[in-house]
Structure prediction request, 325 residues.
Amino acid sequence: MNFRPKYQLRRIRRTLTDPRACVYLLNEFYRTRELTTNLLDEVVRLLDQQGILARPMNMETLLIDPVERKDLVLAHHPVMDEKILHPCQWLGIIPLNRRQRLELAQTVHAPVMPWRYASSVQELVDLFDVWKTDVLLLKKDVSLRALGVNVVRRKHCSNPELSWGVGDIFCPLLTEDPITYKMHFWGKHILGSFALHTPPIESRTFTGLDQSPTGPWEPPTEIHEVIGRLGEALLRMGGGYSSVDMMRHNGRFVIVEINTNSVGFDKMLKYVPIFSQNYTNAVVDIVQRRAELVCPRARIIEGIHYFQEKLRHNIKDAKKLSEAA
Prediction:
């Protein structure tokens, strides 16, 4: 490791006289990325002040730590092998594809962009008429920094190379505002938000890395409320740290994407000075309510299988798109 963590915490170990459960914060970049390490160490310090025993962990320490049945693992990144699942309570690994995430948002009455799933080429052709356009976007279940976001033109609908799965969706291009507004949340807690300038999606060189931050963003009160409802719904399903991307459409903010795992928070640390405290507050709330937030082990294993399959398919799709760019 080529940096010194901001907080040099002692390694947390139980003693025979400590009856507390331990909250493990699972993040694959702990001890390899400075911002992530410093954040999680600070959160552990803040949790300790409230009497909560917590410890950050990465995938390596997941294999060797003496996790007990009474403990709680909050997974920021998915585990890819069910054999290393400790027999304790887990949150953060749920098998929701892109289509299901948008459907969930609609059930809590969140404002969502126009979108549809097409079960056939004819249904895809019909979508061009519905939205009165000759250009649509195909958003794969996982976009891999926008590599899975494809421009589809009406004249190419019959192209045999055009394919999509049950978790993929179609939507029109939103051109009202070139800004993407991001919010991070955990349960009902809004952790922070900021804005990004987004280049035209029709650019062949576009990737998510081309987005340039424009600064912090303070969402309207009604957006706080609706994202809080979405976060609560995800938490009760066994979800965890999540984020939404929003854009303007017809004069209002609408959700264009929901991420429920592996959400990067480096920019959030830059624009939200109290991010570590917000993060801590969310963990405290989960610990206090953990008895009602039970995710069946079978669903967690289903989530692991989903992420395994998703990774295989999207790596292959990304290679094709990169070669074509």
About this structure: The first strand starts at residue 23 and ends at 26. The CA atoms of residues 243 and 259 lie 5 Å apart. The radius of gyration is 21 Å.
